[in-house]
Design brief:
It contains twelve helices and 15 strands. With about 300 residues, it is α/β, with parallel strands linked by helices. Helix 1 crosses helix 2, helix 1 packs across helix 4 and helix 2 packs across helix 3. This is HTH lysR-type domain-containing protein.
């Protein structure tokens, strides 16, 4: 006797709920029907899958092995069904996104606001952190990351590149002068990012490279805060161009060693490989891509 996929899916739901009643409610079936179908599945397999009582169900050793073998398959099957449902195709409902703090407050700030204004029925849940959060654990639909992720279970799409440039103020330059070569940076007050222990610099014309391990008068874990120190004329910093573009344009900040640049970092948008994207997630993914192409 063969096991039907419906019965296997029902067994998975019973395990997830921990009892027959919860699975019966979700499936819209009487508890007696759920019991009968579980017995049919056990008979087809020739093993007992669950120890059942009035209030809970506990997996047997065989049941645990069977659940491990089929739970992910059932989840994918149900996700595929959901994708083609009308509800899944609507541009409404919850959408959880993970993103770095600095670019979300900076260049991407207007984008988040514009998206929620344009799609008011999508409930955006935006989690910001400069430390990557686990997408699976957070049950996130999308995430923005700096740098390619070494995880084959994720889909990744490159959005743009971020240049890093050396900056300071005219006031600092007048008082302290400016270096003529990256080696001279060691003689200056430096403001650094704690997650960047070394500055990898490259000459834009001849490709010459220089590595500096900066001794910083101040070190923080947020590029936005680095900019505040530099704007106060406290030193020189290697900062993402996206963070200082406006200040450079206005003259509030100036480039130091403009022929030298820091490491170029890629921005990626990522999503779980085993998860089918909802229409609202696809909508935001494509919205972010278009926005970044125009503004970064």
């Amino acid at each position: 006797m063969k096991s039907s996929l419906d019965d296997i899916a029902l067994f998975v739901q019973v395990v997830k709920h921990g009892n027959l009643a919860g699975a019966a409610r979700q499936a819209g079936l009487p508890p007696a029907t759920v019991t009968r179908r579980l017995q049919k599945l056990e008979h087809a397999l020739g093993v007992k899958l669950l120890h059942r009582s009035a209030r809970k169900c506990v997996l047997t050793q065989d049941g645990e092995a069977y659940f491990d073998a089929y739970a992910e398959l059932v989840d994918r099957f149900e996700a595929a069904q959901q994708q083609f449902s009308d509800e899944f195709q609507k541009l409404e409902g919850k959408l959880k996104v993970l993103a770095p703090v600095n670019i979300s407050h900076g260049v991407l700030g207007p984008m988040w606001v514009a998206f929620t204004r344009e799609y008011p029925r999508i409930e955006l849940e935006l989690h910001l952190s400069n430390h990557p959060m686990d997408m699976i654990e957070m049950q996130a639909d999308l995430a923005i990351r700096i740098g390619r992720q070494n995880d084959s279970s994720l889909y990744q799409r490159r959005l743009a590149q971020i240049e890093n440039v050396l900056v300071t103020t005219e006031a600092y330059a007048r008082q302290n002068g400016l270096p003529e070569h990256p080696a001279g940076l060691a003689e200056h007050e430096l403001i650094g990012l704690s997650m960047r222990p070394k500055w990898e610099l490259q000459h834009e014309t001849n490709g010459q490279r220089f590595t500096l391990y900066p001794r910083c008068r101040a070190q923080v874990n947020d590029p936005l805060m680095v900019k505040y120190f530099v704007r106060d004329s406290q030193g020189i910093a290697l900062a993402p161009l996206t963070e200082v573009k406006e200040e450079l344009a206005s003259g509030e900040l100036i480039r130091v060693l403009p022929e030298w640049g820091g490491e170029v970092r890629d921005i990626f948008i990522i999503w779980p490989g085993g998860k089918l994207l909802s229409q609202r997630a696809k909508c935001l993914r494509d919205y972010i891509y278009r926005y970044v192409q125009q503004h970064v």
